[in-house]
Amino acid sequence: MVLKSTIVRWRILGAALLLVMLLVSWQAGVVLFDVPGYLLPSPLEIAQALWNNHTTFAEHTLVTLGEVLIGLGVGILLGLALAVLMSWSPLLNNALYAPVLATQTTPIVAIAPILIIWFGVGLTPKVIIIAIFSFFPVLVNTLSGLQATSRQMVQLMKSVAASDWQIYRYVRIPMALPHVFAGLRLAAAAAVVGAIVVEWVSSTAGLGYLLILYQSRLNIDEAFATLVILMLLGVTVFALFAWLERRFSWQKRLGIE
Amino acid sequence: MAERDNGSGSEGRPLVSLRNVAKTYEVDGGSTVAALQSVSIDIADKQFVSLIGPSGCGKSTIMSIVAGLLEPSTGEVLIDGHPPARAREAHELGIVFQQPVLLPWRTIRANCRLLLEVAGLRSAETETRIQELLELVGLQDFADLHPNQLSGGMRQRAAIARALCLDPLLLLMDEPFAALDEFTRLQLNKELLRVWAQRRKTIIFVTHNIAEAVFLSDRVIAMSPRPGCVIEDLAIPLPRPRHPDVRYTKDYTDCVVHLQRLLESAIPVG
Ligand SMILES: Nc1ncnc2c1ncn2[C@@H]1O[C@H](COP(=O)(O)OP(=O)(O)OP(=O)(O)O)[C@@H](O)[C@H]1O
Ligand SMILES: [Mg+2]
Question: What are B94-125's pLDDT values in tens digits?
Fold first, then answer.
């Protein structure tokens, strides 16, 4: 255990060091080669833009974060429910396969305006689009997780007359957990992308809206600052699920890879 | 070596009875595979019976049909006079596979408890029984470890303990030791006999290993493939309890040689 935590500490230190080196060389490059600020601002300029507008940024970050969490929640529930249904019944699996795939092959940018016509510019179309982005990785991973149980394990359960529900509860669902967590992490990242896309199409608030606004005004420092926040938002949501995984996944707990 | 009285039905009806069981699998594309053809076997209570035969002769199919996990195409199976579905509901079946199939997130003890929980039979009394069974298979010191912390042989012992937790009438073992090395297999053979001496169950034991079948069984049933049918039903005249030294007696080698000749002639070479 001691050894493990030491290794983790060194790894974090290494990553931080690399990041600092990257920022320093970026700053040095911009200054040395005299790159014009409207092409690529330096890290210091970006930091300054962040600081100067921090109340604006905070406001819009909260808007986007709210959308992401609600949309992600809906997407996760939808993905989990569909996965259970599709693994349970081959009929449903066949019936739902094409429609599910269609949601992923249709360009979201094309559906977004239609959804806005249907549901107005409020939260509903945003939640729908973020959910469309995030349910898919949850569904695909959970489905393969639910099918990871061996035929013999199922036979063993059936040999004591276990019900379908008991087989899910005692075997299939716990067996699927490591896959589910992998899906959740991907979904978290996809939800942030979904939020930005829908805010681009139509919005009066949020980081996606802010990004468009700053770009149209050629406020490049602020646009980059928005990007940094978006990145941090994605990483935070991702880290949240990584933490949940460490906390609740038997695979991580037992150190089985 | 002539056919012998197999002792089945000596005390009334047999515990397991297969009557003209046939199984034809439908393979996708409309074609069919005849896996079993008219198999009739009676097995007396507390008998240790081995099924032996080349790969694909339908041994696993018989096990699935006896467990009621697969419907025969024709014929019927009775366990203690009832269809297998009833035996499952009454928790009269224990199954051991070639792979231990333990749940990786449960400790060995909790894995043994699994079927009791599913059956809704968990109690202080069953906890004691689990402890006794773990002691019986020599896992008392490993009860609170997870399967990934155990060797293959230990995992298979755990699978045996789990199969006995519901105190079943009938134990179905499908090549339980085939994945183990020779030494561990011998060790587990001896342990299985010890367990069986203490908890007398009816056992149907599938194996590819003729010597193992003869050493363990009261009776060895040999099968031939395509379609699977019984070609020999041999009573093993060796005394119980079986000491490993019986393997050097003439009766033992007679049985082994007889079965070996039979199975070799059943599979056309080349
Ligand atoms: N689900 C299935 N669908 C189609 N054919 C099957 C199926 N299961 C088994 N068979 C066929 O039935 C025959 C008997 O299979 P079975 O698994 O019972 O053999 P086995 O004696 O257990 O073989 P092994 O010793 O290799 O385990 C084989 O020819 C096999 O191809
Ligand atoms: Mg088999």
Answer: 999 989 999 999 999 999 999 999 988 888 88
Nearest CA-CA distance, residue B40 and chain A, Å: 22
Q: Touching check for B144 and chain A: CB below 8 Å?
A: no
The residue nearest atom 1 of ligand 1, judged by CA position, is B25
B10-92+169-266: CATH topology is: Rossmann fold (3.40.50)
Q: Is B25 on the interface with A (CB under 8 A)?
A: no
**Nearest to residue B228, comparing CAs of B7, B26, B12, B23?**
B23
Question: In CATH terms, is domain A42-253 a member of 1.10.3720.10?
Answer: yes
The pLDDT confidence band at residue B16, using thresholds 50, 70 and 90, is confident
Query: Could you give the ipTM of this predicted complex?
Result: 0.84
pLDDT exceeds 60 at position A49: yes
pTM confidence score: 0.81
Domain boundaries, chain A: 1-34, 42-253
d(C-alpha B171, C-alpha A192), whole Å: 54
* Predicted pLDDT of residue A153: 93
> In chain A, what residues touch B101 (CB-CB under 8 Å)?
150, 152-153, 156
Give a three-class secondary structure readout of chain A: CHHHHHHHHHHHHHHHHHHHHHHHHHHHHHHHCCCCCCCCCCHHHHHHHHHHCHHHHHHHHHHHHHHHHHHHHHHHHHHHHHHHHHHHCHHHHHHHHHHHHHHHHCCHHHHHHHHHHHHCCCHHHHHHHHHHHHHHHHHHHHHHHHCCCCHHHHHHHHCCCCCHHHHHHHHHHHHHHHHHHHHHHHHHHHHHHHHHHHHHHCCCCCHHHHHHHHHHCCCHHHHHHHHHHHHHHHHHHHHHHHHHHHHHCHHHHHCCC
How far apart (Å, rounded) are the C-alpha atoms in residues A59 and A209?
A: 12
B153-174 pLDDT per residue, tens = 889 889 988 998 888 889 999 9
The rounded distance, in Å, linking the Cα atoms of A140 and B249 is: 60
Would you list the domain boundaries of chain B? 10-92+169-266, 102-167
Cα gap B133→B143, rounded to integer Å: 11
CA distance B218 to chain A (A): 25
Give me the residue label for tokens 């419907």: B71
pLDDT tens readout for residues B195-223: 888 878 899 999 988 999 999 999 999 99
**Cβ A156–B99 below 8 Å, yes or no?**
no
Residues of A in contact with B85 (CB under 8 A): 161
